[in-house]
């Protein structure tokens, strides 16, 4: 705040201070906006992710929604049951890229693969706010199949899966799985 009032011949306007103030205000208002409309935003985003019966949501919108929902849930959700519900929504997407029972890797188009990748990344982001026991339960379910994503045709999925696996293997909760 003091820099916004400062007059100097070297700096014609206190743009740095104003930019900082603008950023701080935007972050605070965004958090309040998300917090006050949490359920409405979550429901709308989940409907878009699931694509609905009319198929109106295009794949690029669904990709962006997967990322947005993960971030919004991380920032504004305080009920772990709602976090798990959101994680299950992501699981319903990225698990479609898991190897089939016979070991074959599903073939999906690049746009769908990017949606699955975004869902995997958002799911993993939400794992970071789970307790150790919750994390262990979720990973016990997914660790046997996650390495199969390293065989994906999509390089972005392979990179995302590899990074997530590396993170998971470094968490003490996974050492006893």
From TrEMBL:
Provide GO CC annotations from the record: nucleus
Pfam families from the UniProt entry: IFRD
Organism domain of life: Eukaryota
User: Any idea where the Interferon-related developmental regulator N-terminal domain is?
Assistant: 53-164
Supply the InterPro entries for this chain.
IFRD, Interferon-rel_develop_reg_N
* Record's protein name: Interferon-related developmental regulator N-terminal domain-containing protein
């Amino acid at each position: 705040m003091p820099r916004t009032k400062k007059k100097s011949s070297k700096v014609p306007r206190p743009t740095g201070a104003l930019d900082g103030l603008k950023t701080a205000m935007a972050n605070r208002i965004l958090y309040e906006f998300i917090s006050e409309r949490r359920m409405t935003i979550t429901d709308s985003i989940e409907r878009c992710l699931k694509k609905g019966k009319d198929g109106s949501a295009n794949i690029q919108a669904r990709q962006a929604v997967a990322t947005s929902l993960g971030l919004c849930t991380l920032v504004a959700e305080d009920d772990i049951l709602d976090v798990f519900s959101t994680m299950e929504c992501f699981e319903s997407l990225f698990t479609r890229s898991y190897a089939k029972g016979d070991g074959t890797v599903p073939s999906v188009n690049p746009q769908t693969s990017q949606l699955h990748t975004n869902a995997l990344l958002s799911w993993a982001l939400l794992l970071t706010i789970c307790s150790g026991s919750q994390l262990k339960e979720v990973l016990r379910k997914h660790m046997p199949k996650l390495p199969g994503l390293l065989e994906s045709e999509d390089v972005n999925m392979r990179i995302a899966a590899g990074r997530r696996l590396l993170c998971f293997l470094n968490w003490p909760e996974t050492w006893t799985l």
